[in-house]
Design a protein that fits this description.
Helix content is 37%, strand content 21%. The protein is α/β, with parallel strands linked by helices.
Length: 317
Amino acid sequence: MPRIDISQISGRVLRVFLTVYDEKSVSRAADVLESSQSTISHNIEKLRGLLGDALFVQSGRGIVPSARADVLAPKVRRILIEMEGLADQGIYDPITDPDPFVIALSSSILDGELETIYDALRLSLPQKHLMFRDLGKLSEIEPLLETRQADVVLTLRPRSYPNTLRHMALTQDSFRVFYDPNVRGPVDSVEDFCGAPHATVSFGQGSKSLLQTELEALAIHRRVTLGVPNLWTLIRLMQGTDMIASLPSRSSRHTTGTLASSPFPVELPPLQFDLVWHRRFADSARLQWLLMTIETALAQQAQDHPNDVGLRAHSFE
């Protein structure tokens, strides 16, 4: 294998490669980097020559990465993150920071926290680009944070976190059983719970939810007849039916006038919601500023509205 002269590979060339890889387009990469298409193409050609690989090939009207590019992309992403860390002198000015804050969360159950965080960031930074994205599966937390596709994640605590992540407890909640009061009454026993048709919503927990694991340990079996991707669809489809749904009690903020709820028929461990970030960036002044702003905003919200379902704990783990 021929030796590669790495002295010819600059941070700028790597940034161009990664942007083209992410955008799957030279023209869009040029827009993102505020450069010309010819400059982008020149940098890609330079890297092609150094690495001896096409990196990107034409496919219809667009381009697709080569197998070599797929292997290189995560490595290049990590290199650029480390290079950016060299410039972090512990002084952070969010006003002059050109990058958006990106927060991933399960929006259908953490919408209250989303609003509080948004208000706090917008108050401090009226012109800042803020991005809130849906988390998806819990298994996506680590790659999202490692590749800086999200700065922080707000999520239901999974069974465990990888040792590359850190988290802070935000709030606890408990399950209640929701139903349409125009069709049926509250669930008053385990037998009633097991005999009713169940509707479920995925909060990114994969094929087996935390609730399902707890129920199986208690030898309690549900008859699931409906599964949906979000809370709002669940509420809509449950109306006028005898289905029941086991949801965090905070879901009642969205069910007023449509669904009622009753206590869960057995005692379960509390649900824990966390703020999560990657250990790699724990010393970043940018991340520390964001964490402090979020923690302060949620703590103030809890103090102002002590009876609301909100922040109840501050603990780094």
